[in-house]
Amino acid sequence: MVQSAPAYPIYSSEDMGKTWKRIAEIRETEIGLNSEWNPNLYELPQDVGGLKKGTILCAGISIDPAHVKKTAISLYKSEDAGNTWEKIATVATGGGLKNGIYEPFLMLDEKEQLICYYSDETQAEKHSQKIVCKRSEDGLHWGNAVDVVASDNPEHRPGMPVLTKMGNGSYFMTYEVVGIDGNPIHYKTSDDGLNWGDVNSIGTKLKTNGGKALGSASYCGWTPAGSDKGTLIVSATFMGRGKSQTGTDYFISHDYGNSWVAVPHPLPYTDGKGYAYSNSFSFSADGKTLFAINNVDDKADKAKISFALVELGQSVSSATACASSTAQGIAIGALASLFWLNGILRVFAIAVGGFIFWLCRTAIL
Q: Quick one: which of 190, 209, 252, 265 has the fewest CB in 10 Å?
């Protein structure tokens, strides 16, 4: 039997996560490449060139089957809430696994241009890995790559950038720095989403006043809920320093990242055993509800993903499984993305396997 090429399957829930349905998949159209890694979703908050407000974009990594020749950031669009997709551009290209490009993240900058941030290994002799970005006025044509985090130490590997815009107008970016013990999560801030200070600086290590720190594969988001300055949340794969009763903690800030406290993760798991690489979240339209996912402990299948619905502004409680549904389509260790669109939850997953979503009513902050 001939196995079909990898694709990004899309799952949808229209009942707040109680049940999930596979509605579509995205597949690379360039001959010799497969859609394999790091899909990232972004809903356009306004028109960008000929792309209309509400269009959903997906940027993902395509690579040749042998993983030795070419990587590419392929950009796709959906104009019908994720049901059908069309490839519209190739943002950037690189080599295979030893000098490729990875982990795209999309958003608009202060000039309302579309930016794609990603990890870049194409200058491996000088920078083992660096974070760069490209800009576009229409999503179809992309400018030259600009360094964002490119350490003077060639052993440093900053990567997996994730960004959010805060209520004070500033942009906040988190990323891991492999090559330093514990792969610590660092951050930078920007007034315009493009200029992030000294590109040779690895930024500021994220840590609480008590010294706790996070490691690997971070995610961040800001919501106006929780305080007069809103709430900034960062998640990651494991604790780089300090202990957690829930695998890792969520780090939260009520002052735009100037100080941090740790709270229990709404989806507990065992730290350091291959879990929590799908540790992303999204907010409802009013910002008062957080939708979280994570691949939590399952000895038979590390690809099983749990889902939690979190009411912000209440006390923390343990996540409790209330209902579940199963779907097919994610591989062990793969990243997934959660996305909220007009009352419907969308989830991206990659490759082949199985996963399960648990609907949990919990609370945080």
A: 209
